[in-house]
Amino acid sequence: MQQSKTLELLVGLFVAFGIVALFFLAMHVSNLNPLAAEAGYTITARFENTGGLKIKSPVNIAGVRIGRVSDIYFDLESYESVVEMRIEEQYKTLPDDTSASILTAGLLGEQYVGLTAGGSDEFLEDGGTIDFTQSALVLESLIGQFLYQNKSESKQE
Amino acid sequence: MIRIINNLGRGTLDSLAKLGRSALFLTHAVTGITEILPRPRLLTKQLYFVGVLTFLIIVISGLFVGMVLGLQGYYTLSDFGAEESLGIMVAASLVRELGPVVAGLLFAGRAGSALTAEIGLMKATEQLSGMEMMAVDPIKRIITPRFYAGFISLPLLAALFSAVGVLGGQTVGVTLLGVDDGAFWSQMQAKLDFYDDIMNGIIKSIVFGFVASWIALFEGYDTIPTSEGVSRATTRTVVNSSFAILGLDFLLTAMMFGDN
Is the separation of the CB atoms in B104 and B205 below 8 Å? Predict the structure, then answer.
């Protein structure tokens, strides 16, 4: 009898350790926060070009992450891409003339949406749209422009 | 020439028959859960043999794999000045791949081979036929608890492996090599998703637990009841489970992470 009690205890410990490991992975490694996923509101912005922006890319304002990109799709009517962003609940009071641009973290880093607050007294609401946007800088077209300029200048001389 | 064709045909038929036997065996073992629900002690005992005794090797291997990942990752990443990404690198490789796969391989080697040898010897010493004589279904009584024990243990062991590995990587990266502790964790938490990364890793380990226990128990049950037969069956268990785990890992990875 004593033997089987210790055995049960060890099995219980094993299962408990396994579950603790799962919780550690969920909470500490992936930062699963069920509340954060629920609360929040969605705003959209239209861009000519979203570059390498992906779903789940961060949305920053003044360098602080306040949300994530939740969806990116192409609008066939305006031929623009539409970026949906999920903003956390506590950042509810963004002015409705806030502007959005697609920026790159570092030279080779990932792309994110940078918001710049405007001065309006009205706030963006759930489903609201950001009207002032600046597309991603595409390195190839920048270089292309630069080369083209150089060429035309040297022709003029 | 005729003999070659004959052998080929017989080989194919034999392996098909074995596959069929193993599938029947599996359904028999899985439905045997009705037998162990009223006797949970059968399962507890097997959880001890399959899970608890594999615990130590999993924890130690996880720690060392994590530490090596931390060390190797640090030297590679520091060339690009990206040491802060060490956390995400260690955690992603452990949670997505190494945790389920290495835990599965260790499980097949440590627990699977023991299961095969045990069942094979039971068959060789005619304990299984003895049970049948007493109108006790040996598959339901002997195989089913072991099967479910393996099925339950491996996901837990894989989670432990990953968790201990992350801590090992943190020990080497942060404590010994001086990566910033905050960056180590925050990069990891920002990039790893619970559903996409951790759940997929757990699904993998559930599949591996299922397959590894299935192979180990079937090889034991299907063994030729001699000492040579048992030794062959044990070898086959380790080899076949390893192949199955690695092959399935490729398939599962292609399915889970293919679209992004």
Answer: yes
